[in-house]
Amino acid sequence: MKVKSFIKTCLITMIIFTCIFTPTFAWFDNFMNSSLFESDGTDLGDLPVLVEKDSEFFDVFNNSNRINVLLTGTNSNLADTIMLISYEIDTEEIDLISIPRDTYYPRDGHPSADKKKINASFKDGGILELATCVSTLLKGMPINYYMRIDYDGIRNIVNSMGGVPINITVPGGMHYEDPWDDPPLVIDIDEGYQVLDGDHAIQYLRYRKGYANGDIGRIAAQQEFMRAALKQALGLNLVKVINTVLENVESDLKVKTCVKLAKGAKSLSSDKLQTYMVPGVANYGEGGLSFWYADEDQIRDMLYQIYSDEFSATQETAS
Length: 319
Known about the structure:
Elements: H1 2-32, H2 58-63, E1 66-75, E2 78-88, E3 93-98, H3 120-137, E4 145-150, H4 151-160, E5 164-168, E6 174-178, E7 185-189, E8 192-196, H5 198-206, H6 215-233, H7 238-248, E9 250-251, H8 255-265, E10 273-277, E11 280-284, E12 290-294, H9 296-306, H10 308-318
Parallel strand pairs: 1-4, 3-10
Antiparallel strand pairs: 1-2, 2-3, 4-9, 5-8, 6-7, 11-12
């Protein structure tokens, strides 16, 4: 009799536990897989695996413990800045790859010369097509998420962190006007060390005419800005900066991924940021346009450098 009573009590307890906690677990699972950011519905989880199975990078890409995020700075629906941020969870290191917006990337069905720049893929097919092009360019390197921000968002984020300290080394400073831009572009930044507010940060990021190598010089300046901004953001205003980022960035980053990133943020520093640029050469091509022609062999070498620890681990496992 006591045995029957015990079994009955256990069954009732299990039923009550299931009825109460299963919906809670389901809600929690849904919450962890939801996004903290605004999104247009794009999910890079839909991006196909673009690395071939016989590629030297196949095992390395699939076995690495990295979160790869495509960061796009847009202006009037144009991809003005393209970067791939790769965060290594175990070492808490960041590799940032800049992709020149003029990178030569011909696509089927787009024969005109202006459509053969990689940033044209964003205008034609949105963030998913741009991510496909970037992943293919980088030997099938997986892209897990995207972040999109426009100039207004940059202005707000920079102001939330109290500005970004930068040393302007361009002789005579950065000065340029384009009355035909919409709105008219006016860049007016003096030479020397200063803290850029939101408006001047945008001017700094858009400046390119004073560099001998044009957009490539601009990319180097953007990478310097990213390093300085990361250091500034990790200061006393971190909570305010995070809130501003959430309000001004469009992304498909999930809550569970943000939790992983937040755990590593306590030991994150600008010293752990390594910057790269898709290697290649600038030259004039079709239609008299200037293109950045990527070098396939040098891209391979760059990826070997970024994934050096993963390659070492793969070789140890194989032996």
